[in-house]
Amino acid sequence: MGKSLTAERWVPAPDSVGLNRFILQQRIIVVGSFAGSSIFPFAFLVDSFLLVQVLTVVINPRIFYFQRCTPLSNMEGVVVRRVIPSDNSCLFNAVGYVMDHDKNKATALREVIAATVSSDPVKYSEAFLGKPNEEYCSWILNSEKWGGAIELSILADYYAREIAAYDIQTSRCDLYGQDRNFSERVMLIYDGLHYDALAMSPSEGAPEDFDETIFTIRGNRTIGPVEGLALSFVKEQQRLRKYTDTANFTLRCGICQRGVKGEKEAVEHAQATGHVNFQEYR
């Protein structure tokens, strides 16, 4: 029976391996002699994330094969936008996805933020938060309330990773935790009203299981080629107008049907009437 080297130790390898159509997540190098004959030495390389069809590979007892993981961020791939539900907690669930591959982290992360803020009322003062510390903690625990820069800054510290938030309309990247000398970074994308997650994927249609969302920060404080791919993706989203211009968008009140323009008029209408249900129209 052959042996395979994985995680620096030898383990038995099967005499035959049946592989159906799938996306490989590892680079597999097989070296040996085919069918027990030393006359036909062979070696083949199946590169990471190539879609392959292998019916049966017969491995001679004298064949050894070696597997090693190859990070996608060092290879070819595409940046993809992973859509997060629009339920007023998109920021928290987007962070949950890029950090933990979990789109249902909002409740837990709201609690993290409330605990952090309440533990340091000097740092998180009314001047900083825009409301008293205790009031803010109750407010952020409400699942109807949105998050923003304050919450992203706290979550960057909590996970000890930089959070890059790309704004589609301006293609600006707001980087949270950049002064903390963290060694890793994750990426979000913002359309003016909503946050989604950004990931590296082997292809446009690849399953989310193959997403890479955490990237090593290099000595020059970038994440290498992935950073350029992310910016190109954001600019393409901008070209396609995949954003909401909150200063000039037109909204219709879902209760009284009155039309308003921009966030300012929407806020004024809500304060005057108590109506908070708006739909965008063009």
TrEMBL record:
Annotated catalysed reactions: Thiol-dependent hydrolysis of ester, thioester, amide, peptide and isopeptide bonds formed by the C-terminal Gly of ubiquitin (a 76-residue protein attached to proteins as an intracellular targeting signal)
SUPFAM superfamilies on file: Cysteine proteinases
Pfam families hit by this protein: OTU (PF02338), zf-C2H2_OTU1_C (PF24560)
Domain of life of the source: Eukaryota
Compartments where located: Cytoplasm
Molecular-function GO terms, alphabetical: cysteine-type deubiquitinase activity
Signal peptide location: none
PANTHER family found in the cross-reference section: HIV-INDUCED PROTEIN-7-LIKE PROTEASE, UBIQUITIN THIOESTERASE OTU1
Name of the protein: Ubiquitin thioesterase OTU
Organism of this sequence: Nepenthes gracilis (Slender pitcher plant)
